[in-house]
Design brief:
By secondary structure, this protein is mainly α. The protein contains two helices and no strands. The radius of gyration is 19 Å and the shape is rod-shaped.
Length: about 60
Amino acid sequence: MDWIINNLATVVVGMILLAAVITAVCKLIKDRKHGGCGNGCSGCSACRKMPSSQMMKK
């Protein structure tokens, strides 16, 4: 119990960072499932699935 009390700030910061990483990974997975990476690059296989109206023009 003393270890947790002595390292509480480190534990809290670590939990916040872990939550941020999990959120980012979940968003990437969700974006991939909905048909693309969001970058709009014409050479990307995921962008071929998107309608041309959603692709970014260079």
